[in-house]
Design a protein that fits this description.
Low-confidence stretches: 387-396, 398-436, 447-460
Strand content: 15-25%
Helix content: 25-40%
CATH architecture of the largest domain: 3-Layer(aba) Sandwich
Shape: globular
Number of helices: 16
Number of domains: 3
Structural class: alpha/beta
Number of strands: 17
Radius of gyration: 25 Å
Strand order of the largest sheet: 10-11-9-12-13-8-14-15
CATH superfamily of the largest domain: P-loop containing nucleotide triphosphate hydrolases
CATH class of the largest domain: Alpha Beta
């Protein structure tokens, strides 16, 4: 199938050619005809499958027809809600690229920056509005947004919007929209909360599912390194010395952790920048631009910020911290291998993260190759019992509270006790289960792995 088979306007076909596209991706081939027919669509697909063009091209096609028929004043006719600033900018950029040969206008509004310029754009008129929920609600309450002409709603990365706590804002926005409209719903995963929302807002939708929710991209080479938490940064530096790693996206569980990784890499002569929610919009965009241009080859990100990263040729993904939600791992590694290209996904797993790795294996149904031949093999095979932590924390809290009574009665009930550092229980390298072979596979059949070790001894 070719894009011309969708009977798209000449202006859109020209823009598609300018962008270098020749044939539609699977999700585009399955969903675009239904969207052009005016049907509600539920799309479930991994990142890098061409979701933006899937809804952008039909929306532009519909708006071109309306403009020709009615010569309407420029009002918001299509609304796209997305979770992050980066993703909002990326979607708006794509709309403007696909509509480059049309008079249609698209603008994006998002938080983290002054709203003055965004308000000016709204007052000048726009056909398509891309927005993050929080900023949209803010400007709507200031009467800067009119919704009576909206006939198409797109919810993109819906699962992440729920993860970020936007569900209340999303439902509020939906209640403000005209009842008669077309709704396009896209999500990388389909948890129960998403399915419930789908049943509330979609009418007899066409479901398009390109890959199963739990499947990982087969062309991505996945590996796991068992390494102690204290040695993860050393291992990362060691691996990044490989010049074949052209571009690396490193995932950190926390914002503070992301900044710490950047500092450690910088101290070792490796240029890197971080991108997360505490960064200003200017700072986040600068880091992303530097990464795309090759000014830096390492970008450290949290999961939320990474939703706006759209890079066609990302060679490596590093799971510095394994996610506690298995679906997030699938989404992370999907950052490489985009548009059918290959890629490498490496995971660092400490003993306390082993259960996360087990959950990932269970979800994907696939073993992950274990790399044993590296200079920082796992040596810690114990986790401090929770009871010990709780007893110490309670005692420390009590002591801290007592010491603060002399300063202020008001603060006497506060506690900020800290758990002690984890006991450094180690086993010698002679007892390491990874001494003989340098490479194996971790999964259900891998019995000589950390999954079989507890308190420094093998089970059985």
């Amino acid at each position: 199938m070719k894009f011309k088979d969708f009977n798209l306007a000449v202006e859109l076909l020209q823009a598609i050619t300018d962008e270098g596209y020749t044939t539609p991706s699977p999700i585009q081939e399955k969903a675009i005809p239904s969207i052009l027919e005016g049907r509600d669509v539920l799309g479930c697909a991994q990142t890098g499958t061409g979701k933006t063009a899937t809804f952008a091209l039909p929306i532009l096609q519909k708006l071109l027809k309306v403009q020709e028929d009615e010569k309407y004043p420029r009002k918001i006719r299509a609304l796209v809600l997305t979770p992050t600033r980066e993703l909002a900018l990326q979607i708006a950029e794509n709309f403007n690229a696909y509509g480059a040969h049309t008079p249609l206008k698209c603008c994006a509004i998002f938080g983290g920056v002054s709203s003055k310029k965004q308000i000016v754009k709204l007052q000048n008129g726009t056909d398509i509005l891309v927005a993050t929920p929080g900023r949209f609600v803010d400007l709507y309450n200031q009467n800067e947004i009119q919704l009576k002409n909206v006939d198409t709603l797109v919810l993109d990365e819906a699962d992440r919007m729920l993860d970020m706590g936007f569900v209340r804002d999303v439902k509020k926005i939906i209640s403000w929209l005209p009842k008669k409209r077309q709704t396009l719903f896209f999500s990388a995963t389909m948890p129960n909360e998403i399915q419930k929302l789908v049943s509330q807002i979609l009418i007899n939708p066409v479901k398009v599912e390109i890959t199963p929710v739990s499947s990982t991209v087969d062309i991505i080479k996945q590996s796991v390194y068992f390494v102690d938490k204290v040695n993860k940064s050393k291992l990362l530096i060691h691996l990044l010395k490989d010049k074949e790693i052209v571009s690396a996206l490193v995932f950190s569980r926390t914002k503070h952790g992301a900044d710490k990784i950047v500092k450690i890499l910088g101290d070792s002569g490796i240029k890197a920048q971080s991108i997360h929610g505490n960064k200003s919009q200017v700072g986040r965009q600068l880091a992303l631009d530097n990464f795309k241009s090759g000014e830096i080859r390492v970008l450290v990100a949290t999961d939320i910020a990474a939703r706006g990263i759209d890079i066609d040729e990302l060679s490596h993904v590093f799971n510095y911290d394994l996610p506690n939600i298995s679906e997030t791992y699938v989404h992370r590694i999907g950052r490489t291998g985009r548009a059918g290209l290959g890629g490498v996904a490496n995971a660092f797993c400490s003993f306390e993260e082993k259960e996360y790795l087990d959950d990932i294996i269970k979800l994907t149904g696939k073993n992950i190759d274990v790399v044993k031949d590296h200079p920082f093999p796992m040596q810690i095979f114990t986790i401090e019992p929770k009871e010990t932590k709780q007893r110490y924390s309670s005692r420390n809290n009590a002591n801290n509270s007592q010491s603060r009574i002399t300063l202020s009665k008001k603060n006497s009930h506060n506690s900020s006790g800290r758990s002690p550092a984890k006991k450094d229980n180690r086993i010698s390298s002679e007892k390491s289960p990874y001494k003989k072979d340098s490479h194996t596979s971790y999964g259900k059949k891998h019995t000589n792995s950390p999954a079989r070790i507890k308190n420094g001894r093998k089970k059985g």
